[in-house]
Amino acid sequence: MLKLVAIGTVADVMPLVGENALLVRRGLDALGGKNGPGLAALLRASKKEGPLGGQDIAFGLAPRLNAVGRMGGAEDAVRLLLTRDPAEADTLMARVEVLNQERRAIQQELAARLPQPDGAAFDLVLDASAHKGVIGIVAGHRMRATGRPAGVCTVVDGVAHCSLRAPEGYDLGGLLAMAQPFILGGGGHRAAAGLSFEPSRLAFVRQALQRGAAEQAAGREIPLLLLDGSPEELPSDGELARLEPFGQGFAPPLACVEGSVASSAVFGSDHWKLRLTGLSDPLTWFANHERPAQPRAGEHLCVAAAPQGSARWGRSWLVDAVLGEATP
Description:
This protein has helices spanning 2-11, 18-31, 37-45, 54-70, 75-82, 86-113, 135-146, 172-179, 202-218, 237-241; strands at 123-126, 150-156, 159-165, 185-188, 192-197, 255-267, 271-276, 283-285, 300-308, 316-327. It is α+β, with helices and mostly antiparallel strands. It has three domains: 2-109, inorganic pyrophosphatase (n-terminal core), CATH 3.90.1640; 114-218, Diaminopimelate Epimerase, Chain A, domain 1; 231-327, CATH 2.40.50.460. The strands form two sheets. It has a five-stranded mixed beta sheet with strand order 1-2-3-5-4, sandwiched between helices. Strands 6-7-8-10-9 form a five-stranded mixed barrel. A hairpin with a 6-residue loop joins strand 7 and strand 8.
């Protein structure tokens, strides 16, 4: 059962410290051995092989399982994890993949349809036709892109339902308290919450959240970005594997990566793959992170990036933050 404990702990974004870290580490070790038909099919679909880390669950296994519930019901995900029949596992995994692709398409379409953030202290948008299963993901993407609290709302049976996300240094609980006179209900924790209200009160809810976010921003201590060295100074992939699991509460190490852009390409939904002169491993830069204009060949770039090890592809670097503007 430690395999499922590990997946559930990471998928629910629990802090990977103390006994949580121990349980997840043992679950990761177990996942690296022989697995039942359902987990084996899930690993194949996620293109995960060899020793696993916390990030493999967070960005490979968990989104596929969560997509089933987001798109209307979690039964197929439960059946996939429980089945002992390889043929049934393949059938269920194919269905899960279809739902995950559908979730991605709906999420991308909603993100493109929403108005761009306008610089307000709290970025709150409402789209009456938005799919409720993806509004939290889109809110998280907008929050990471701006560094400010964000919320995306839809309307179900005449009631607005919103999913809120906030970066470190904010407290959504306090913001919900300020909006209390105008909402029907709400709850959550400092970084993620939900609320509901009558659509006619959108302006009042937005004003209350923006006022509260502005007050919190004024007294907010900007979290320091701690770097662990240059790419050459970071441990090898094997040494990093001994420190797993990385994730919530125990972030992967960050290196200061800089150099001239040798090549720049787009893949997926406006994600970037970059190569820098003097750096043998590529950089991946996802669209939901703060980014300048796409760097061109010859521009100098300085970013904080985390190492990503792969049994098949070797090491690459996942960009986390911009440390300096690209310059010719």
